[in-house]
Amino acid sequence: MWRQEKINSLFKRLASSFFAKEKTGSIVTITRIVSSKDLKSSKIFISIFPESREKEIFSLLKGRAGELRRYIGSQIKMKFLPFFEIVIDEEEKARQKIDKILGPVAKG
């Protein structure tokens, strides 16, 4: 389990570096990465701000998944490099909505 966490952390750092080079005009945050136990696939969960451009930016980034895989492969040496799936982090969106609703209540 520790090895997988370390690899996910490395993937997150490299994917962040890759996405930072994309000139989207939006803020793309990698919230988490979940890899399969055999490390043959990884899901990259992202959050995009502003939300009004989410579909456009998501489509752009999803189309670059192959380039992301090549970039990560050029940075690290692994026997098998996973295939990366980029998805919107719906849990993070729900958390943000709850924070927005509870914000005035929490501040008291």
UniProtKB/TrEMBL annotation:
Q: What is this protein called?
A: Ribosome-binding factor A
Q: Which organism is it from?
A: Candidatus Tagabacteria bacterium CG03_land_8_20_14_0_80_41_22
Entry annotated with the keyword Cytoplasm:
yes
* Alphabetized UniProt keyword annotations: Cytoplasm, Ribosome biogenesis
The family note in this entry says: Belongs to the RbfA family.
The alphabetized list of GO BP terms reads: maturation of SSU-rRNA
Q: Which gene encodes it?
A: rbfA
Q: Which domain of life is it from?
A: Bacteria
Q: What does this protein do?
A: One of several proteins that assist in the late maturation steps of the functional core of the 30S ribosomal subunit. Associates with free 30S ribosomal subunits (but not with 30S subunits that are part of 70S ribosomes or polysomes). Required for efficient processing of 16S rRNA. May interact with the 5'-terminal helix region of 16S rRNA.
* Main location (coarse class): cytoplasm
Where does it live in the cell? Cytoplasm
